Amino acid sequence: MTDDSKWTADSKLPDDSKLNLIVLDMAGTTVADGGLVEQAFSAAAARLGVEPGSADHAQKLDYVRATMGESKISVFRHLFGAESLAQQANTAFEEAYGTLVDSGLIAPVPGARETVERLRGEGRTVVLSTGFARTTQDAILRALGWQDLADLTLCPADAGGRGRPYPDMVLTALLRTGAVDGVQQTVVAGDTAYDMLSGVRAGAGIVAGVLTGAHDRDRLSGHGATHVLGSVAELPDLIARAEA
Q1: pLDDT of 137-160, one tens digit each?
Q2: For position 16, what pLDDT does the model report?
Q3: Residue 99's closest CA among 155, 42, 57?
Q4: Is residue 24 helix, strand or coil?
Q5: 66-70, 112-116, 180-184, 230-234: which has the minimum mean pLDDT?
Q6: 9 by DSSP, 3-state: which?
Q7: Could you tell me which of 56, 23, 6, 61 has the C-alpha nearest to residue 159?
């Protein structure tokens, strides 16, 4: 459960506060990728000489799991140290993930497309964000036929290079769209602790964790979720209650 200091699922916003900017994570939140991140990481690590099944591989994979939601290049900088090695690993990861995406191994989270369409139909601005590079994000969007689904798509490079847990992508969404007058009129939804931290640090009015991805209720709540939902499909009703 969320902390008592945070408002409940039925809490109301001030009458003049409309939640008109919705920033949604992709993998694990709106996109089900079936563990492709781990598969792509293993391929990238092998290219850099990390043997599958080794203790080094297991340790690095544990770190990847723990930092789901973070910008992938930041993860590789931590794991491999030297910038040249991090860039090699990131390139190999993006190539492997793109190949897996093109193989048809991803799908929308049930109700995700309908959620975005409903939110936009209500006059809200929807932004899809990711910790992947732009090439990978575009490959996912193409595979799902989502190129025109959202008002805007963002990756860390669009926000000066800093991905989650920094607030930069959320704030970039606000600046680029001009959809709201203040950060408190923003909703952030994601499946990882880093999504929650990003939303909290940006000052979003709702920071919703979803249970369709990497992290569980306790971890999402512990990193600032104002609400924890079964899936993103529950988000429009939550917003409607908050504004009622």
Answers
A1: 998 999 899 999 999 999 999 998
A2: 52
A3: 42
A4: strand
A5: 66-70
A6: coil
A7: 23
Q: Using an 8 Å Cβ cutoff, are 225 and 195 in contact?
A: no
My answer on whether 206 and 119 are in the same domain is yes
CA–CA gap between residue 71 and residue 88 (Å, rounded):
15
H or E element that contains 128? strand 125-129
Run of H or E residues at 240: helix 235-243
Q: Please say which residue of 47, 82, 102 terminates a domain.
A: 102
Say whether 179 sits in a helix, a strand or coil: coil
Nearest to 126 by CA among 141, 137, 111, 115: 115
Token couple for 216: 């569980």
Give the pLDDT score at 158: 94
pLDDT at 43: 83
Give the C-alpha separation, 240 to 244, whole Å.
6
User: Strands 107-108, 31-32: parallel, antiparallel or unpaired by DSSP?
Assistant: antiparallel
Q: How many CA atoms lie within 13 A of 160 on its CB side?
A: 9
**Which residue segment(s) compose the domain that 63 sits in?**
36-102
In Å, the largest CA–CA distance within the chain is 58
> Which residue in 201, 116, 124 sits closest to 159, CA to CA?
201
Would you say residue 189 lies in a domain? yes
The CATH number linked to 205 is: 3.40.50.1000
User: How much is the pTM?
Assistant: 0.83
Last residue within a domain, chosen from 53, 71, 102: 102
